[in-house]
Amino acid sequence: MLAHPFIQLNRLSKRFGGVTALDDVSFAICRGEIHAVVGENGAGKSTLMKLLAGVHEPDGGEIRIATQNVRLVDPREARRHGISIVFQELNLFPHRTVASNIFANREITNRWGGVDRLAMNEASRRVLAELDVPLSPDALVGPLTIGEKQQVEIARTLEQQSRIVILDEPNSALNESESQRLFDIIRRLRARGITIVYVSHRLEEVFAIADSITVLRDGRYQGTYATNETTVPQIIAAMIGRPLGDSFPQRPKDSAPGPVVLQVRQLCRDPGLGPISFTARAGEIVGFAGLEGAGIDELFRVLFGLDPMTSGQIVFRDKLQRPTTPLAAMRSGWALIPESRREQGLMMDRSIARNTTLLVLDKLLGRLGLIDRQQVHTTTDQYVKRLGIATDSQEKTVAHLSGGNQQKVLLAKWLATGPAILILNDPTRGVDIGAKSEIYALCHQLAAQGMTLLITSSEADEILGLADRVFVLSKGRVFHEFHRGEASKAKLLHAVTGRMPNESIPTNL
C-alpha cells in the first residue's frame, strides 16, 4: 500500500428493505493508486461504488476524502468533490458528437448564451490528445466501438477535473487489444495523480493493472492486499471463503467426442464472412477465437438463422439444413446463448419462471389448451436446482438477480428446449469467479451427455481451458486450427493477430 490514505471508508452500511448489501465496511484507498475492488456477484461492490458516486447514501458510517468528511447526497455532489464513475452500461447519447457527450449537461456557452461548439471541440481535442485517443470531437458516438465509447466516457471524467475515477467492470465487453488500450489510458490517469477505483471480475487483468486489491464477500470487508504481495488463489479464497481449485475441471477420460454431427462447408455470408468450413462432433466443445470483426459473431448469427447465408452448406446429422429463422434453427435442435443477456437474452422485468419456460410453453399445456401452472413450476424448479440459481422464489424478477444468476436463467431457458447444439457467445461475461466455475462444469457435463458446444469468449484462457479444438478466425475465414494441448495463450493471441503460431512469439505474453 502507498503511505497516505486519500479515501477513507469508515464502517459503511447499506440496506435495501430486509437485505443488507454492505455491513460495516472499512478500508482506505491511497492517492494516485489503482485500487481494485473484487468479489462475487452480490458481494456489495456495485453498492459501494454507488455510495462513492452519490447514487445512494449510506445508512451508517462515513466517507472521508482527503481528511474531509463528505456527504455525497447525489451524483452532482460527488462530482463537486472530484468523483466520477464510468458504469458498465455506458451512459452516452448515441446521436450526439464526441464533444457533445464530453460536455453533456456542462456545455460551454458564449456571451449570448448559445452553445460554443468551437470551444467545446477544442477542449475535447485537448483532453483526447492527453489520453492519446485518436477520436475526432465531431464524430457521432453511435457508430463507435464499445472500447471507443468507453474512451469518450473516460475523457469526460478527465475534462471534469476528476480526482477520483471509478471504473465499474470496464473490460466486460472488450477484446484483448481494447483491454490493453484501456490499461494504457488508466496508467496515464495514474501518472497525472488521479486515483482509480477499478471493479472487475477478471482477476488476471486486476493483477496486471492494480496496485492494491480489496476483497468483499457477502457485503463484508475481507481484506486489502498489495498486488505484488499476493496471488490469484489467495484472492479467490478470500472472495468465496474457500480455495477454488482448478477453474477448468478436467474432462472425464471416458468423455471422448463421438462421431461428426455437424459439417459446415464453404459457408459464406456477404459481406465479409467466408468461405468457412469446419466440423464438430457429438460431445465436443469447439472454440472460436478472433479479434473484433473476425467473423465469429457473423458465423453464429448465420448458424442460428438470424442472418441468411449467401452460399455453402450446413449439414447436421446427415441432413442438409438452411436455417432461415431462429425458430427454424431451434426446431432443428440449435440453441444460442447471446453475448448480451440484458438486451438479447432475457426479459429483465419478468420472473425466473416466465423466462425459463418461455420457449417451451407449448409443451406445458393442460387438457383445455391452457398453460399448466404446475408444469411451469415443476420445469422451473428442475432448472433452478440443476443450475444452482440462487433465489427464494421462482417469481422473483430476473432484474433483481446477480449477473451470474441471470446468466444461469438464460442457460435454463435454452436448455429447456433440449438442444443438440449449443452456441455460447461469451457465456461468462460479467459473471463472478464462482459462477464461472459452475458454468465451466456445466459445459463439461453437457458435452459428456453428447451435446455439441460452439463457444467463443473475450477471455483467451477461457477458450483454451474449455475447448477440445479452437478455430482461429481472421477476416471471416479459418486462419488456423488448434487441438487441445497444442496452444498456449501466447500462441493463441499470436494467431488471432494474423500471424502463424510458429513465428517468433513475444516473451511477455
Draw up the topology in text.
Layout: E1 5-16, E2 19-30, E3 34-38, H1 45-52, E4 60-65, E5 68-70, H2 75-80, E6 83-86, H3 98-102, H4 117-130, H5 146-159, E7 164-168, H6 176-191, E8 195-199, H7 203-209, E9 212-217, E10 220-226, H8 232-240, E11 260-269, E12 273-281, E13 285-289, H9 296-303, E14 311-316, E15 319-321, H10 326-331, E16 334-337, H11 341-345, H12 352-356, H13 373-387, H14 403-415, E17 421-425, H15 433-448, E18 452-456, H16 460-466, E19 469-474, E20 477-483, H17 489-496
Parallel strand pairs: 3-8, 3-9, 6-7, 7-8, 13-18, 13-19, 16-17, 17-18
Antiparallel strand pairs: 1-2, 1-4, 4-5, 9-10, 11-12, 11-14, 14-15, 19-20
CATH hierarchy: architecture of the domain at 5-240? 3-Layer(aba) Sandwich
Strand content: 15-25%
Alpha-beta classification: alpha/beta
Instruction: Give the spatial strand order of the biggest sheet.
Output: 6-7-8-3-9-10
Radius of gyration: 24 Å
- By CATH, the superfamily of the domain at 5-240 comes out as P-loop containing nucleotide triphosphate hydrolases
User: What gross morphology would you assign?
Assistant: globular
Seen as an oligomer or otherwise, the chain set is: single chain
Low-confidence parts, pLDDT < 50 over ≥5 residues?
Answer: 504-509
Major beta sheet, specifics? 6 strands, mixed
Question: What separation lies between the terminal Cα atoms?
Answer: 27 Å
Which fold does the CATH topology of the domain at 5-240 refer to?
Rossmann fold
Mean pLDDT: 86
Task: Kindly state the percentage of residues in helix.
Answer: 25-40%
Output the CATH class name of the domain at 5-240.
Alpha Beta
Total DSSP helices:
17
Extended strand count:
20
